[in-house]
Amino acid sequence: MSTAEQPGRPERNANGEIIIDEAARAASRKKLVWIFALFFLPLFFATIWFQIVQTGAISWGNTSRGELIAPAVPFTEFSLIEAGSDDVFGLDDVRGKWTILYAPGSDCNEDCEKTLYDIRQARLALNHRMERVQRVLLTTHPVAFSDEVQSANLGLRVVSNSEADSSFVDQIKAAQSGMELKNNLIYLIDPNGNLMMRYTPDLLPKPLFKDLKHLLKVSRIG
Questions:
Q1: Centroid of chain to Cα 44
Q2: CA distance 103 to 101
Q3: Is the pLDDT assigned to residue 74 strictly greater than 80?
Q4: What is the reported pLDDT for 8?
Q5: Which of 7, 17, 34, 101 is the most buried (most CB within 10 A)?
Q6: Residues in a beta bridge with 89
Q7: Positions of E strands within 66-220
Q8: What pLDDT is stored for residue 53 in this prediction?
């Protein structure tokens, strides 16, 4: 067997110059690109996802049904009175879970009770994800529900302003400066304690459910 015919050695022409196989070179380049993509793309997307999870930053585009409070406003310390408990409801209570906050702006009448029912239905529709969401009713003063209303709203946390601290309501109002003034609103607070969306009762329960479903799907926080 001649030297030129030995396997593993490059082919040469009559002048002894190495013959370059362009097709083989192109195939080799493609393999390198695929190896690079398989290794670095998962790392890139994992980094992006980690940033989303850590910051709670979610790009909605035009898909949200509620009204965005942009940018989302982080709550600072506040103190509320929780009905049926000696505990104070504060900033730590809206961290770690998604919070649906309903602020009817007055006593909870028949329309308010209907809204509470719709909020409950939106949460129940989340199925196994519903434990990541809590419901809070903010009233102007402590209220006492009938046994029927209480049994229909198990798990609902009812809070009211303390006489010495109105900072919670003040923060909600400040977050909506520049937005159309509305009453009887439902707010969405993320697990980092940011006020991020608001809804009117006519956007319940389905639009609220769809937004929550999207949020819980794309975010692991809360």
A1: 21
A2: 6
A3: yes
A4: 54
A5: 101
A6: 80
A7: 67-74, 79-82, 88-90, 98-103, 133-139, 157-161, 185-189, 194-199
A8: 42
Cα 183 from Cα 209, distance rounded (Å): 21
Report how far residue 100's alpha carbon sits from residue 118's, in angstroms, rounded to the nearest whole number: 11
Please state which of the ranges 38-42, 65-69, 106-110 shows the lowest mean pLDDT: 38-42
Distances (CA, A) of 184 to 103, 151, 180: 6, 23, 13
Return the closest-CA partner of residue 108 out of 67, 66, 160: 160
pLDDT (mean) for 20-41: 70
Q: Is 53 exposed, middle or buried (0-12, 13-18, 19+ CB in 10 A)?
A: middle
For residues 140, 122, 216, 91, the Cα torsion angle rounded to the nearest 10 degrees is 10
Instruction: Specify the residue for token string 């609220």.
Output: 208
Q: What angle do CA 65, 91, 219 make, to 5 degrees?
A: 40
Q: Is residue 43 very low, low, confident or very high in pLDDT (cuts 50, 70, 90)?
A: low
- Beta strand 194-199 with 157-161 is unpaired
pLDDT tens digits, one per residue of 123-157? 999 999 999 999 999 988 777 777 888 888 999 99
CA torsion, points 38, 41, 44, 49, in degrees to nearest 10? Answer: -100
Domain limits, the chain? 1-55, 57-218
The backbone torsions φ and ψ at residue 15, rounded to the nearest 5 degrees and listed phi first, read: -90, 5
Q: Between 143 and 45, name the one with better pLDDT.
A: 143
State how far the alpha carbon of 105 is from the alpha carbons of 113, 130, 183, in Å: 13, 26, 7
